[in-house]
Design brief:
Blueprint lengths: L1 E3 L1 E6 L12 H10 L2 E6 L10 H14 L3 E4 L1 E2 L6 H4 L8 E4 L16 H6 L6 E4 L3 H12 L4 E3 L5 H12 L4 E5 L1 H5 L5 H4 L1 H4 L8 H9 L6 E2 L8 H4 L14 H10 L5 H15 L9 E11 L18 E11 L2 E5 L2 E2 L12
Parallel strand pairs: 2-3, 3-4, 5-6, 6-7, 7-8, 8-9, 9-10
Antiparallel strand pairs: 1-11, 11-12, 12-13, 13-14
Helix pairs in contact: 5-6
The structure holds (4S)-2,6-dioxohexahydropyrimidine-4-carboxylic acid and zinc ion (ZN).
């Protein structure tokens, strides 16, 4: 079965600054192995991508090392001004960390939200990490400035209900959900292990997870929030939050299709068409993914392309395997082998 090249709008590449976890070459190898032909990178690197200097340095690394196509998000700081807003044509979108998470980017007080909400161009996505009550505040700002926002990784019943309410009233909001919030809950923590299970937003209750499934029509896109950390870090005293997700997302969704919880169209719309429309990405010519939807396999502990080389889904039986990926006319992945060299990937923002 042939699918269009998937696009993941939420990937933590870790370069610059933390290449022991991942870099542009390994993140994009994991992407291709997972059936993604384009990724949109998050800005909470070291240093974070908040200035033209770091943006240019990061794009230069991507240009040399990426194996699939890409664009980079800018991160908003408390001193957001016209200079930062002028970077919009060169980035995937602006990411605002309104809730606390990994890295230094946190806009704790609403008084510093006005700048980015006011200045960021309406045509370029403004992505918010806003959990629970903070999401209500972010929706208020979207209304106040009458501008669209995209809500990253919706995780809880209270959040999907806020978004449903906002959408029903015609407010300009879209959202994404991760595979881990759709397939895992707090009940999985003992099996995964406390440190490894750390993630932001943290796993919800089984009720939260079911509320996401019940409000599927409110969910615009699926995004992995691929957030690689090493097992040494995850099993240490201060486990950082996040899971690798690029290589397990499609098999999990194809398994849900097989079980009748999703249609194939639900998946393709949320992992390709809607992502491309929201971020206004160009079509990738001669690009597709061949999957064997009936191929059954057990998710292994290791042997992944991501440098982090672990998964919270180890031991799960899934149906659906990526066999072959063609990107811009070239075979870039076949049966476990990534064939695209570093540098094959192109920028999606000109
Ligand atoms: O679990 C997470 N990890 N959530 C985030 O918001 C950040 C990410 C990371 O960068 O590790
Ligand atoms: Zn993230």
């Amino acid at each position: 079965m042939r699918l269009p090249g998937l696009i993941d709008p939420h990937v933590h590449v870790r370069e610059p600054g933390a290449t022991h976890k991942e870099d542009w070459a390994t993140a994009t190898a994991a992407a291709l192995a997972g059936g993604f032909t384009a990724i949109l990178a998050m800005p909470n690197t070291q240093p974070p991508v908040t200035t033209v200097e770091v943006l240019e340095k990061t794009l230069a690394l991507a240009r040399q090392k990426a194996r699939c196509d890409y664009a980079q998000h800018l991160g908003g700081t408390g001193r957001f001004g016209a200079r930062e807003a002028a970077l919009a044509p060169r980035v995937a979108g602006l990411k605002l960390y309104l809730s606390r998470t990994f890295g230094p980017l946190w806009l704790a007080r609403t008084e510093v939200w006005h700048g980015p909400f006011h200045l960021w161009p309406r045509e370029t996505p403004l992505v918010v990490h806003a959990e629970r009550v903070t999401l209500a505040a972010a929706l208020f700002f979207a209304r106040l400035y009458d501008r669209p926002i995209h809500v990253a990784h919706v995780a809880y019943r209270e959040e999907i209900l806020l978004i449903r309410g906002a959408k029903e009233r015609g407010w300009p909001v879209t959202c994404e959900v991760t595979p881990h919030h759709l397939f895992l809950s707090q009940e999985d923590v003992p099996r995964i292990g406390e440190g490894r299970a750390e993630v932001r937003p943290s796993l919800g209750t089984a009720q939260d997870r079911e509320a996401l499934w019940q409000n599927l029509e409110v969910i615009d896109v699926f995004a992995t929030d691929h957030a690689p950390h090493t097992l040494t870090e995850k099993d240490g005293l201060q486990p950082p939050p996040g899971y690798p997700g690029l290589e397990t997302a499609l098999p999990l969704f194809l398994t849900a299709v097989r079980e009748g919880r999703l249609s194939m169209e639900d998946v393709v719309r949320r992992m390709h068409h809607r992502v491309r429309a929201l971020w206004r990405l160009p079509q990738q010519p001669e690009t597709w993914v061949e999957v064997a939807p009936e191929a059954s396999w057990e998710i292994p502990e290791q042997g992944w392309h991501t440098r982090a080389n672990w998964t919270p889904f180890a031991g799960w039986r899934v149906y659906g395997r990526v066999r072959r990926v063609v990107l811009r006319g070239k075979e870039v992945y076949r049966d476990g082998q990534v064939l695209a060299p570093p540098g094959y990937g192109r920028s999606l923002r000109g």
